[in-house]
Amino acid sequence: MKLKRILSGIISTVMTVSAIPVVSVDAEDNLQSYPYTMFASSYSDGAITVNSNNFCVNGSISTNGTLISDGNVNINGTANENMENVI
Fold first, then answer.
1. Which of 51, 49, 50, 44 is nearest to 82 (CA)?
2. What is the span of the domain harbouring residue 63?
């Protein structure tokens, strides 16, 4: 009986120690933004619809329709609407 308690204590300690590297992960100090492009090929109004209070795009948005947002929008690129006639 005592051997089972000692063995289970050792196994639980090993499992706990092996989980420490997974749990203690720090975020990267120098955060970078990665530019991207959103595109919607729909010709309807609201082809890109954002239902958010704050919305930030670190790139460009292009749509054949229109862009509709409920809240504060920050686009660090270009916002192109009604692009159906542009080649």
1. 44
2. 34-87
Backbone angles phi, psi at 9, to 5 degrees: -65, -40
Q: Is residue 11 part of a domain?
A: no
In the chain, the number of structural domains is 1
Q: Is 72:49 a contact under the CB 8 Å cutoff? A: no
pTM (predicted TM-score): 0.47
pLDDT tens for each residue of 17-47: 877 665 555 555 565 666 666 777 777 787 8
Using alpha carbons, select from 25, 79, 73 the residue that is nearest to residue 51. Answer: 73
Dmax (CA) of the chain: 81
Residues 6+ apart with CB under 8 A from 72: 53, 54, 55
Contact (Cβ atoms closer than 8 angstroms) between residue 74 and residue 52: no
